[in-house]
Structures are given as structure tokens and as C-alpha cells.
Amino acid sequence: MAAVTNVQWKTWQDWVNVAAGVVLALSPVWASFNSASAWPIVAGIVIAVVGLWALGTSASKTAEWVQVVVAVITFILPWIGKFATATGAWWTWILAVIVLALALWSMYQYNKEA
User: Fold this and answer.
1) Are the CB atoms for 71 and 100 separated by under 8 Å?
2) Handedness of CA 10, 97, 72, 77 (dihedral sign)
3) Per residue in 38-79, pLDDT tens?
4) Chain-centre distance of CA 15, in angstroms?
5) Which among 101, 99, 81 is positioned nearest to 32, based on CA atoms?
6) Rounded to two decimals, what is the model's pTM?
7) Which DSSP helix (H) or strand (E) runs through 99?
8) Which of 9, 18, 19, 44 has the fewest CB atoms within 10 Å, i.e. is most exposed?
């Protein structure tokens, strides 16, 4: 079996997740979240920080699992924050699915290389 190579700061999936976090944090500028606009800002910041953590570590399954958990929480956030009927809910759902899919893809790649 081949050893996992040093992929620190090189995984494009984590870079996209950082960008998705930034987009989600900024989404109250162009999308309606009713009175719950703090929720996507906080979720976006958390996604971006966890994405940076995943980028800064070499093949960290823990960071990818945290991204998965954060993506799932972000997906249910419109119901928790009571903005599921607002247009911002779609931004939240779509970006959560992107983050989830890319985190799972990264974990798959790590398992394949290990």
C-alpha cells in the first residue's frame, strides 16, 4: 500500500469548502433570511475555519469528519433558525450539500491513498 502523501494546503475540495463558507457568511447581503441573518454568518465562518483546518493538516480524517458534521448541521439550520421559507434557505441548503459532498470525497481519497 502506498503511504498518504503530504497534501497540506493542496486539496482543491477543501479550498472550495473555504470559499463556500465565505459565500454563506456573505449571503445575507443578497438573500433574505428574515430576521435570522446571524445563523448563516456564523455557519459560514465555521465552515471556512474548518476548511482551513482541513487544508492546514495533512490528510486529517478528523477535520473532514468535522466538515461532514458542520455540513449536516448547516443543512438543518433553516429549520432551527426558522428561516426555511426565506430565499436564504436555498443558499444554505445548496452550500451545505456542496461542503458535505466535497468532505466525503476528500475522505474517500484519503482512504484510497492509505
Assistant:
1) yes
2) positive
3) 999 999 999 999 999 988 886 678 888 999 999 999 999 999
4) 10
5) 81
6) 0.85
7) helix 88-113
8) 9
